[in-house]
Every structure is written in C-alpha cells, then in structure tokens.
Amino acid sequence: MFDAQRKNKIHWEITDLCNLKCPMCPRTDTRNRCRPVKGLQHIQFFFKDAKKLMPEAFLKQVQRIDFCGNFGDPCMARDFFDICEMLIARCGVTVMVSTNGSMRRPQWWERLGRLFAGTPSWLEFHVDGLADTNHLYRIGARWENIAANAAAFIAAGGRADWHFILFKHNQHQVQQAREMARAMGFAAFVPTDTGRFPDGGKIAYMHPEGDWRSLEQATVRLHDDPDNAAPAGRSSHRSMTGADETIVCTAAEKNRFFIDAAGYLAPCCWVSNRDPLRPGDMLRAIAAAGKDPEHFNIRRRPIADILKDDLFSRVFPQLWGAGSLATCRKKCGRGHRNVKIRWEL
Length: 345
Ligand SMILES: C[S@@+](CC[C@H](N)C(=O)[O-])C[C@H]1O[C@@H](n2cnc3c(N)ncnc32)[C@H](O)[C@@H]1O
Ligand code: SF4
Ligand code: SF4
Fold this sequence. Notes:
By secondary structure, the protein is α/β, with parallel strands linked by helices. Helix content is 28%, strand content 19%. The chain is built from twelve helices and 16 strands. Strands 1, 4, 5, 6, 7, 8, 13, 14, 15 and 16 form a ten-stranded mixed beta sheet that branches. A two-stranded antiparallel sheet has the order 2-3. A two-stranded antiparallel ribbon has the order 9-10. The two termini are 36 Å apart. Residues 18, 20-22, 25, 27-28, 72-73, 100 line the site of one iron/sulfur cluster (SF4). One iron/sulfur cluster binds at residues 18, 20-22, 25, 27-28, 72-73, 100.
C-alpha cells in the first residue's frame, strides 16, 4: 500500500481536544448537551513527543503533513506553534491545518502567519456561515474571534482558505461569504456538500442549553450547478476488485497515512476507529492477520518500521479483494464522501 520510493504524506490528529461542540462531529454526544463522547481521551502530542517520534531522518521522506483528525482541533494542542516551526522552518515540510479558528488570541495567529508566509504551507478555516449563522453548527464559536484571528493570520502573510459546509440555515449566504472571503484576503472559498446527513436530511441533537434542536441538509446541491466542476476523477491506480465493486485506495494513491491522537497509525482516518464495539477496518485487518494492535502505535514502534509491515502490502489488498472491509467499500468503492468545490479568489 505504501511506496518507499515516493515521499509520504501524513494526516496527523495531533490532539483530540476541541473548544467547540459541532453536532455532526464524532467527538460530540448529541444526546447529552453536545458534551464530548465517553471514551474521548483528551490527549495530545507535545513538542518533545513530536521531536522524538518524527526524527529528522524520517521527516526527509515526508512531503506534507495535514493537521486535521477525527476528534480534535490541531490549534488546541499546547505546543502546536513549536511543532509547526520544527516542521516548516527546520525540516522543509509543507503543513496544512484544518481549524475552526475560534480559539487563542490574534497575536498567536499572527505569529503562525509569519511562520507560514512565503512557504507552500496553508491553513483552512472551517467557518460554516456568517456572524448570525456559523454558531448554529459550530456551537460555541464566537464570530468576532474567528474574524480577528483570520485577519491576523492573513495580514502576517499566511495563506488561508475558507471552507463552508452548506446547511439549510446558511445556504443563502454562500455568495455573501465568498465576497467577504475575497475582501478579507482569503486565497480561496470552498463550499462543501456534506455526506454526513442520514436519509431524510435531518438530525436532532440536544443543545448545550438542554433543549432539542435539529439541523437540516441544504436544499441546493453543489453538483447541481453546471458551472461547478465535478469531483476530481479517480484513477485506477492500486485498485482491487471486491465482491461487487472496485476499491481505489486513496491512501495508497497519495502514499498518505493517518496517525490518531493516541499514536496509532492507520491507512486513513476512515478506517481508524478503535472502538471494539464498532471496529474500523484497521482493527478488522489486524484481527484477520492475527497481529497485535499495539504494534501499530508510533509511541511503541518506529514509524518507518510500522510502514513496512505486511499488513499494508499484503493483508489490506487481500481483504479488499474479498470485499470484506465495509468502510473501504463505502469510502473508496462507492465514493460516499463530501463534495467540495474550490473557488480561487
Ligand atoms: C473533526 S474536524 C478536525 C479539524 C477541525 N476541528 C475542523 O473542524 O476543521 C475534521 C473535519 O470534519 C469536518 N466536518 C465537521 N463537521 C462536518 C460535517 N457535518 N460534514 C462534513 N464535514 C464536517 C471539519 O470541517 C473538518 O474538516
Ligand atoms: S471544530 Fe472540528 S473537532 Fe471541534 S467539534 Fe467541530 S468538527 Fe469537531
Ligand atoms: S477507506 Fe480503505 S480503501 Fe479507502 S483510503 Fe482508507 S484504507 Fe484505503
């Protein structure tokens, strides 16, 4: 699955901490006032961990690190600036950061902007609406803080994109937000159709104030707009024909792997679920091969050794061939994903 001749990309969940309570995020318990789900570990990698676990010799093989994750926001990690500085200024790695942008003071964002200035690294602000709507999904976010933080980052020379998930409550604001993004100096505006609504297009959640509310899917779809490009085409590189469909592994195509906040390495964030009651495809593949899950934790075994494990070169492809990995079939067989359109500004 991973090609030692090509440079790697990494998707790194550096922490599972977050300051917000977005109802469709897996960290959020929608039945209990949007508090963090039980079992969340509230952990992070500190600078000393990053320095030890990502040695410079290994980082020479790394082209890019995307800081995002399933359960947290990278900008909540205490040492996040120092880790970015090590990667960008000292090791020449390109960094991408996905954030809600509402934590910390503008001075911190200005410093980050100076670090990013003149490099290929960039930041995605995930802001789903304007002053009157963003908090309807991004529960707990203060609009004024995001605006001040983004302005500070951009003024210092950092490249920033504005990502905007469409809901029924904000779909009328797309053009206005796009104009605001242009005026604020964002490089691109990226509206997104979410693939997370169930059939029926509605979810209910208990708001932190204790009352039940609902979110509704947008009634306009990005791919209905003929001016918009279709999602990027998929090549047949590293594809396997499963029981009833072809699986094209995005992780293999990009030579990109995922590390969760506890240090477990998996091919991608979709298969990484370690909950024994709802095991992800990584756990299924480990069980099928009779291996120990702990052997895939970068805190216990060097990353370079983990990547050479035949779980990735042999076991995953065999299981795809047998059509027995449910998430792989869903995400890389049928293409059940978000649809994003990128508008350069
Ligand atoms: C768990 S978040 C981690 C990064 C950061 N906290 C953030 O929100 O950007 C992972 C990704 O899920 C996206 N996301 C959150 N809610 C979503 C939804 N309902 N549909 C699609 N993507 C969603 C976020 O925008 C982000 O890109
Ligand atoms: S900001 Fe990101 S990590 Fe935090 S709750 Fe929202 S989607 Fe989840
Ligand atoms: S879901 Fe499966 S097939 Fe798709 S990128 Fe992840 S490991 Fe590869």
